[in-house]
């Protein structure tokens, strides 16, 4: 079975993070949602806030050394 990978830039330091995207509303009184990623190295209790404009899905392409390529497809809004 193929694992689907996503990545996006963190809000706090601008570094790329890989994992599983989530969208949640942290407070019932607010009407805004927060976008985050559960990193592949962490449990579901750890979420990194991301910039949703940078969220993309890996294309599955690899380079000549069989490493995951930096290319990824932007997700539609």
Structure at a glance:
With 77 residues, the chain is an all-beta fold.
Largest beta-sheet details: 6 strands, antiparallel
Number of helices: 0
The poorly predicted ranges are none
Shape: elongated
Estimate the helix proportion, in percent.
Answer: under 10%
The ordered H/E elements are EEEEEE
Would you tell me the overall average pLDDT? 76
Q: Quote the beta fraction.
A: 35-45%
Q: What is the straight-line distance between the termini?
A: 27 Å
Q: Strands of the biggest beta sheet: in what spatial order?
A: 4-3-2-1-5-6
Number-wise, the strands total 6
Structural class: mainly beta
CA-based gyration radius: 14 Å
Structure description:
This protein is mainly β. Helix content is 0%, strand content 35%. The chain has no helices and six strands. It has strands at 6-9, 16-24, 34-39, 48-49, 56-58, 72-74. The chain has a six-stranded antiparallel β-sheet, with no helix packed on it.
Main features:
elongated, 77 residues, mainly beta
How are the elements arranged and paired?
Elements lengths: L5 E4 L6 E9 L9 E6 L8 E2 L6 E3 L13 E3 L3
């Amino acid at each position: 079975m193929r694992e689907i990978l996503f990545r996006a830039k963190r809000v706090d330091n601008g570094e790329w993070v890989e994992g599983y995207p989530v969208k949640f509303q942290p407070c019932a009184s607010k009407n805004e949602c927060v976008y985050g990623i559960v990193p592949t190295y962490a449990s579901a209790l750890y979420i990194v806030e991301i910039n949703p404009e940078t969220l993309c899905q890996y294309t599955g392409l690899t380079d000549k050394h069989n490493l995951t390529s930096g290319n990824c497809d932007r997700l539609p809004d």
